Q: What sequence folds into this?
């Protein structure tokens, strides 16, 4: 199992607000995209780094009047990154970063935690997904994984 992070776009306080109410907004994802996605993070316009993750406790199907099946992420606790992860090379990120509320990217957690900047996890960056795990957040992530497995 490879733990993954769902990266999306929203306003600056979106993760805090969503964690307080217990869920994110419905996202148009395919069921197979949800496999191993255990965390969510969000970027807003003007941000220069990722600062936190939110645990995803579960996904529930959500169908709206437009007929598109969406998935509603229910959230657990927020985890602050040990230090903000800068975005990095803007040219590599152009067209890849989500710029609308329903746009997403899915990233491997270990690669994200090991990166020195977000652009390091992209194909063609020279560092994509082959990075050693950074231990600073490892205890919190490992504890969350154990809770998920015990549930």
A:
């Amino acid at each position: 199992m490879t733990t993954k992070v769902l990266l999306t776009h929203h306003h600056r306080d979106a993760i805090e607000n969503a964690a307080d109410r217990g869920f994110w907004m419905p996202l148009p994802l395919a069921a197979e995209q949800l496999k191993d996605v255990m965390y969510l993070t969000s970027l807003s316009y003007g941000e220069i780094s990722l600062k936190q993750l939110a645990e995803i406790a579960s996904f529930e199907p959500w169908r709206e009047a437009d007929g598109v099946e969406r998935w509603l992420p229910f959230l657990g606790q927020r985890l602050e990154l040990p230090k903000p992860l800068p975005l990095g090379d803007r040219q590599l990120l152009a067209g890849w970063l989500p710029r609308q509320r329903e746009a997403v990217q899915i990233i491997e957690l270990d690669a994200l935690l090991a990166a020195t900047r977000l652009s390091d996890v992209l194909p063609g960056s020279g560092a994509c997904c082959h990075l050693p795990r950074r231990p600073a957040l490892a205890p919190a992530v490992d504890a969350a994984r154990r809770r998920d497995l015990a549930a």
In short: DSSP finds four helices and five strands in the chain. The first strand starts at residue 4 and ends at 9.
